[in-house]
């Protein structure tokens, strides 16, 4: 039986199945310069944590490394997952400005007013990469499935970038499965990586 994580803010209850620490393995697959050569394929292990600090955002941290003799470290990710809704006076920011007034989401009924026509919720996800790239995703969460598509991105001039990205997360028989597709410049979306993670905390 699933139990809501202790202290989870009401606004984050659609993300409840994600909260915790996850570990597992996956496969990276990509082609270089869109050639007819077979794709490069590498196995990796990953650790992901979804957590909350009482605010209206779920925090996301991912670290990964290749399963090879060197234990090659792969780029990490940090980010924030939120329900898509207009900012209100009670929200903190910009910067460290403290919000004022009461939050609009105080009951489950208030939260349900934000549900989309499919019966889930529209969400927004921001992800920061150490290579100087920041991504903003729009998406949907329904039950134990998340679908994301990149909406905007910014990068330093010397960063390695891609044109578009889509991700899917789902809970299957207690395991968190995810798939990531990217479109390199001048190309369409193609499979990039996937993994199966088991809850460890």
Automatic annotation (TrEMBL):
Domain THAP4-like heme-binding: 11-199
InterPro entries: Calycin (IPR012674), Nb(III)_bact/plant (IPR022939), THAP4-like_heme-bd (IPR014878)
CDD domains tied to this protein: lipocalin_heme-bd-THAP4-like
Any Pfam family matching the protein: THAP4_heme-bd
HAMAP family found in the cross-reference section: nitrobindin (MF_01297)
Protein name: Unannotated protein
Organism this protein belongs to: freshwater metagenome
């Amino acid at each position: 039986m699933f139990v809501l994580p202790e202290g989870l803010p009401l606004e984050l209850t659609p993300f409840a199945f994600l909260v915790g620490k996850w570990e597992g393995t996956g496969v990276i697959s990509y082609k270089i310069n869109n050639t007819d050569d077979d794709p490069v394929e590498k196995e990796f292990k990953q650790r992901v944590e979804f957590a909350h600090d009482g605010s209206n955002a779920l925090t996301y941290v991912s670290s990964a490394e290749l399963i090879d003799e060197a234990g090659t470290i792969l780029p990490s990710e940090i980010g924030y997952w939120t329900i898509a809704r207009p900012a209100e006076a009670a929200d903190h920011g910009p910067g460290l400005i403290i919000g004022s007034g009461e939050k609009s989401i105080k009951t489950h009924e208030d939260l349900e007013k934000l549900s989309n026509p499919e019966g889930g919720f529209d969400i927004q996800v921001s992800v920061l990469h150490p290579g100087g790239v920041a991504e903003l995703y729009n998406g949907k969460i329904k039950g134990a499935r998340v679908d994301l598509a990149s909406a905007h991105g910014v990068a330093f001039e010397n960063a390695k970038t891609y044109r578009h990205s889509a991700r899917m997360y789902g809970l299957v028989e207690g395991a968190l499965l995810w798939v990531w597709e990217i479109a390199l410049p001048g190309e369409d979306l193609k499979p990039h990586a996937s993994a199966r993670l088991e809850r460890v905390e």
